[in-house]
Design brief:
With about 60 residues, the protein is of the alpha+beta class. About 20% of the residues lie in helices and about 30% in strands. A 4-stranded antiparallel beta sheet has the order 1-2-3-4.
Length: about 60
Amino acid sequence: MPQISGLHWVKSSFSDAGGNNCVEIATTADEGIAIRESERPDITLVTSQAALRALLLGVKSRGR
C-alpha cells in the first residue's frame, strides 16, 4: 500500500475555487496516483499512472 499521508493534492481545473465538490489527485511516493472526492477526503482510490491514463482515454473516446 502506498504512503497516503502528506500528499500534495491538486483539484481538477473544472472545479470552482471555493467548492467542496471536486476531484483531487496526487502522486504517491511509489509513482502511483491517488484520487479522492473533496467532500470525502477520508476515502482514497490508488491506481497506477497507466491505468488512470487508460480510463481517461476510454472516457474521452466515448464522449465524441
